[in-house]
Every structure is written in C-alpha cells, then in structure tokens.
C-alpha cells in the first residue's frame, strides 16, 4: 500500500515536471495579457471576431518567454542534480509555445460557434493547451516526446486528470486576486 502511494505521488510530481513549461506559459499569459489583441480587432464574414480580446500579443510573448525561462531552469537543475528527466531545448520551446497555440486555436473555434470571449467550454478550456503543447512537441521532438510521454501511458493519464484540477485551482486563485475576469 505504502509503495502504491509513493508511486502515485512520484507520477504526479513527474507529470508536473514534464509539463511545467506548458503550465507556466499558459498561466503567465493571463498575467502578461492585455493590450493589442492578436487578431487586431478583425472579424470574419460570420461577423464574429477572429480570436477575440482574450488573445493578446503580450499574453503570447510573455507566456512563451516565461515557459522557456522555466524550462531553461529545469535543464540547469536536472544537469546539476543528475535528474534523468532533462527537457530538451526544442521541447521547452514547443511546450511553451504549443500551449498558447492550442489555446488560440480553441478561441478561434469558440468564436465560430458563437461563444463570446470568456464563455466557458468545460474540459476543452482546460485541455486545449495540453493538446497544443503535445502536438507541437511530437512534431518537433518526437524522440523526447515518445520517451517521456508516449511510452508512459500513466504520465499521459495523470496529466489529463490532473490538469483540469490544477487549472481550476489556479483560475480560482487568479479570479480572487482579480487577475482574471472569470473563475474558469
Ligand atoms: N491571455 C492573453 N493572451 C493569450 C492568452 C491569454 O492575453 N494568448 C489573457 C487574456 O487577458 C485572457 C486571459 O489571459 O482574457 C484568460 O485566458 P483565456 O481563459 O484563455 O481567455 P478568455 O478571455 O477566456 O477568452 P476565450 O473565450 O477566447 O477563451
Ligand atoms: Mg477563459
């Protein structure tokens, strides 16, 4: 029993460690967000915004930069302390940028189905960035992605279950400190 608990916590810690650049970039986009929207206010023929006011240049740049910065720190820590799970430079870039790309693609489709900026789309709002981070990392660093994710289904499952919980908790926190307009 004790061993199962240890194994469970080790899996959770490893899942967070592997996803950290994506988690940081996604949450820091909220902190840095504001200013010029990425779609520059443009609308499509359906009369709706391309992406909406919630996707900004500053959010994308600030979020990606913070994700990469955390990734570089992880590489340093892993090499210094001999941790075997070292992210690659490619992976920290694709995890950080891919996370926000996934979020942007989601907003594009949210607008197309007529959801206003900030409207809740359960589960998709919480896993869009995981999908973006994984797809981009799989494309650009398939070796690293296969080794750390595809060959460990437990990690994949843990990320899918854990992310909506973490997302919810950080968003409630962000809402309470008035950083976010909605608690989701
Ligand atoms: N944000 C940003 N740029 C991004 C992503 C997020 O500026 N690329 C900021 C925005 O201030 C946004 C907030 O983070 O309002 C929360 O992000 P998110 O929940 O993804 O956006 P929503 O405002 O809910 O918009 P949408 O309905 O398009 O998801
Ligand atoms: Mg939202």
The outline comes out as globular
Which stretches are low in confidence, meaning pLDDT under 50 for 5 or more residues running? none
| Strand runs, count | 0
The helix/strand series, from N terminus to C terminus, equals HHHHHH
Count of helical regions: 6
Largest sheet: none
Estimate nothing, just give the exact number of structural domains: 1
Question: Structural class, judged by helices and strands?
Answer: mainly alpha
Strand content: under 5%
Written description of the protein model:
This protein has 184 residues and is mainly α. The protein has one domain (17-33, 46-176). The protein is 71% helix and 0% strand. The chain has 6 helices and no strands. Helix 2 packs antiparallel against helix 3. The model has no long low-confidence stretch (mean pLDDT 96).
What features would you highlight for this structure?
mainly alpha; 6 helices; 184 residues; 0% strand; binds cytidine-5'-triphosphate; binds magnesium ion
Question: What is shown here, in short?
Answer:
This protein has 184 residues and is mainly alpha-helical.
């Amino acid at each position: 029993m004790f061993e199962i608990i240890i194994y469970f916590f080790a899996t959770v810690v490893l899942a967070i460690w592997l996803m950290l650049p994506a988690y940081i970039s996604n949450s820091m986009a909220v902190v840095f967000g504001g200013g010029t929207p990425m779609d520059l206010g443009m609308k499509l023929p359906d009369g709706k915004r391309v992406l909406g006011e919630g996707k900004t240049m500053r959010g994308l740049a600030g979020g990606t930069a913070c994700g990469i910065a955390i990734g570089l720190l992880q590489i340093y820590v892993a090499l210094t302390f001999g941790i075997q799970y070292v992210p690659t430079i490619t992976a920290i870039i694709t995890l950080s940028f891919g996370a926000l790309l996934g979020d942007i693609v989601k907003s594009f489709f949210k607008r197309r189905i007529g959801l206003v900026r900030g409207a809740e789309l359960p589960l998709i709002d919480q896993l869009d960035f995981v999908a973006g981070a994984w797809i981009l990392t799989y494309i650009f660093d398939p070796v690293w992605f296969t080794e750390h994710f595809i060959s460990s289904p437990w990690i994949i499952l843990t990320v899918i279950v854990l992310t909506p919980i973490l997302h919810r908790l950080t968003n409630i926190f962000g809402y309470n400190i008035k950083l976010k307009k909605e608690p989701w």
